[in-house]
């Protein structure tokens, strides 16, 4: 087959052709894509142009290069997730809804004394024991979120003895017979540290979102405080907003 290029950038034409092969399911996860030489001949361009198009799909985490073997389709979907702010949800939910494979990786898990700010969020005296978890959330093995999580040690005895590379809320509900009633969250923008960039596999030009949240049980007790760092290029947040009400209009209307 001979491809015809339009006035579009040559590499973008190749990118769109490959994307079409993916969306039409002519290529499926695990399939090897045509090599650079074949694509160069097909489109009548230099291999560097082909490589630029493939690089874009690799950066989109749809293709993966395997040294000495070629380039393969990793996923039919770009790992860009949406988090609803209307209910308590989990990273697992976000990732599964996007049709991707969720995975948790625990980087650190121990009992620590709560610093003053953490204790205040949990309604505890400063220095109280808390369970501290530092975890990385991945979709199709692409790192998306880093989370620092703090839970009162007095109500989560034995938590560190359980497997923590799974949904934490599932453990809380099933093992500790606790209902999660509501949460309070704050969101802002930030630049990640060098260590965070390394864990999230991002460059200097990728901004992140920070989210702090407190989750309360049915009794109104704070049972979790978390500080999470979300990749700004991979995560979106959504919420429903109520009707606009202006007091001056209401009074004079």
Describe this structure in words.
By secondary structure, the protein is α+β, with helices and mostly antiparallel strands. The protein folds into 2 domains: 10-73, Orthogonal Bundle (Arc Repressor Mutant, subunit A), CATH 1.10.10.10; 81-238, Chorismate lyase (3-Layer(aba) Sandwich), CATH 3.40.1410. The protein is built from 8 helices and 10 strands. Helix 1 (10-23) crosses helix 3 (47-59).
What attributes characterize this protein structure?
253 residues; 2 domains; 6-stranded antiparallel β-sheet; 8 helices
From the 3D coordinates, which CATH architecture of the largest domain would you assign?
Answer: 3-Layer(aba) Sandwich
- Kindly name the structural category: alpha+beta
The CATH H-level superfamily of the largest domain is Chorismate lyase-like
The count of helical stretches stands at: 8
Could you tell me how far the N terminus lies from the C terminus, measured between alpha carbons in angstroms? 68 Å
Question: In this structure, how is the largest beta sheet organized?
Answer: 6 strands, antiparallel
Radius of gyration: 23 Å
Topology as a string of helices (H) and strands (E): HHHEEEHEHEEHEHEEEH
Query: Order of strands across the biggest sheet?
Result: 4-5-6-9-8-7
CATH topology type of the largest domain = Chorismate lyase
Helix content: 25-40%
Mean pLDDT across every amino acid position:
84
Poorly predicted regions: none
- Beta fraction of the residues? 25-35%
Number of domains: 2
């Amino acid at each position: 087959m001979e491809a015809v290029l339009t006035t579009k950038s040559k590499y973008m034409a190749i990118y769109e052709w490959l994307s079409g092969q993916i969306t039409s399911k002519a290529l499926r996860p695990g399939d090897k894509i045509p090599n650079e030489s074949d694509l160069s001949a097909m489109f009548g361009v230099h291999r560097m142009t082909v490589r630029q198009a493939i690089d874009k799909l690799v950066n989109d985490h749809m293709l993966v290069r395997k040294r000495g073997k070629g380039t393969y389709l990793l996923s039919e979907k770009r790992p860009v997730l949406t988090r609803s702010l209307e209910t308590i949800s989990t990273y697992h939910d976000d990732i599964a809804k996007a049709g991707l494979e969720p995975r948790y990786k625990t980087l650190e898990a121990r009992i620590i004394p709560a610093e003053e700010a953490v204790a205040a969020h949990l309604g505890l005296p400063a220095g109280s024991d808390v369970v501290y978890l530092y975890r990385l959330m991945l979709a199709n093995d692409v790192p998306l979120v880093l989370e620092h999580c703090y839970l009162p040690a007095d109500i989560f005895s034995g938590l560190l003895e359980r497997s923590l590379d799974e949904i934490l809320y599932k453990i809380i509900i099933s093992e500790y017979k606790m209902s999660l009633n509501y949460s309070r969250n704050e969101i802002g923008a930030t630049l990640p540290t060098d260590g965070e960039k390394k864990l999230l596999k991002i460059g200097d030009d990728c901004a992140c979102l920070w989210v702090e949240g407190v989750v309360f049980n049915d009794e109104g007790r704070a049972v979790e405080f978390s500080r999470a760092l979300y990749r700004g290029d991979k995560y979106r947040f959504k919420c429903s907003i109520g009707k606009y009400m202006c007091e001056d209009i209401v009074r004079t209307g």
